[in-house]
Amino acid sequence: MKPNKKVLLIGGTSGIGKALIERMLEDNKVEQIFATYHRRQPITNHPYTEDPDVKEPDTKATDTRATDTENTDTKDKVVWLAMDVTSEPSIKQAIEQISEHVDHIDWAINAVGLLHNGSHQPEKAVKQLDPEFFIDNMKVNALPSLLIAKHLCTRQKKQKSLLKQRHNSNF
């Protein structure tokens, strides 16, 4: 089957996001993965590489360098994009960068999440609720998915309208 799925994976550098990239790299139905990072872009395009070094982010970051151990079928499959999920302009910019590569996204997966930080652990009882930490959690765990959907839908509607106009002008 011809690869054709284009995926946006928010939070692809560790945990569930990294595992998803590893799995999608093996899936011949996935043609392109747009993976985001927050602070540091992975040095390689391939998450199987056990290189702990990272480089500072670039605003138009894509890393398509291959290593000797990479499968050449997947070396260009991942495009890394900087994204701060708590910043709507950052989300919008990443979506615009994706539009420079493809006309649509088939799947959008948000693997970013906040469960605890240095001063707060997950609440096990209502009396442990800290309103400020709850708001911080919502800013990372809920709002980004809505903002990503907002900008993806807006972008894809524009693309669909342009395609329709082109199609109608061909008649």
TrEMBL record:
Compositional bias per record (Basic and acidic residues), positions renumbered to this chain: 48-73
Pfam family, one: adh_short
Stored InterPro entries: Fungal_SecMetab_SDRs, NAD(P)-bd_dom_sf, SDR_fam
Gene3D superfamilies associated with the record: NAD(P)-binding Rossmann-like Domain
Region Disordered: start-end pairs: 41-73
GO molecular function, one term: oxidoreductase activity
Domain of life: Bacteria
GO cellular component, one term: cytoplasm
Name of this chain's protein: C factor cell-cell signaling protein
Species assigned in the record: Psychrobacter piechaudii
